[in-house]
Amino acid sequence: MQPEDGADSLSSCTKEVFAYQCYRSGKRYIFVDTPGLNNGELSQSAVFKAIARWLEKTYGQHSIKLTGVIYTQDITDNRQCPADMQGFQLFERLCGGEAAHQVRLVTTMWDEADKSEATEAEGTLEEKQWNSLIAAGAKPQRFDNTSESAWNIVRGLGNTTTTLLLQKEMVNLEKSLKDTTAGRGFPLEESFPERMRQRITSRVRRVRGKWRRSSSVAN
Question: Could you say which of 88, 126, 132, 207 has the lowest number of CB atoms within 10 Å?
C-alpha cells in the first residue's frame, strides 16, 4: 500500500474511510484508516457521518465486528481546543462503555517530545479527558515511532471482537444517526460558522506543523 499524500506531515491527511489488509507471521490483519474527528480539512459532521456509514454497512450488511479501535493523540500538542475535546467526546459516545476494553488510547511523537513535559501531558489526559473511557476499560499506550511498538499495540488487542455502541443502535435498534447516543445533540448539518472554524483550524495546524519542522531542523 502506498502512503497517502501528506502522510509524513503533522496534520491529518486522510480524507475518507479506507480499509486495507496486511500479513504478518502468517496472519491476516485488516486495518481501517479514518479521517480524524479533529481533521483540519473536513468538518466533524462530515467525518462523523462517513465513519458512521462505514460502521453501519460493515456490521449490518456483512456482520463484521472490530477487534479494536485505536485513537491517537500527539503528545506534544498539549493545547487542546474545543474541537479536539468535542471530537474525543464524540469518539467516546460512538464506542460506548461495553466496547471500551477493546479501545487503545495511543499517544504519539514521544521520540520528538520533551519527556518531562510529555509525561505530565500524558497524566493530564488520563486523569481528565480520558478518565471515563479508561475507567470503562480502555487502555492508554505509548507509540515510540517504531514498527515493533506499533505491532505491540495491535497484538495487545488479542482476538476478541466487539460491536460499537453506534453499530448496535443503528443496526440492531434501527435508529437513525441523529437519534443515536453519539448523534443526539451533535450538529450533523454543517453550518457556515463550522465551515469557517474548519478553515481556521486547518491553517493553524499547517502553521504549527511548519514551525515544528523548522524547529526540528534548527536543532
Answer: 207
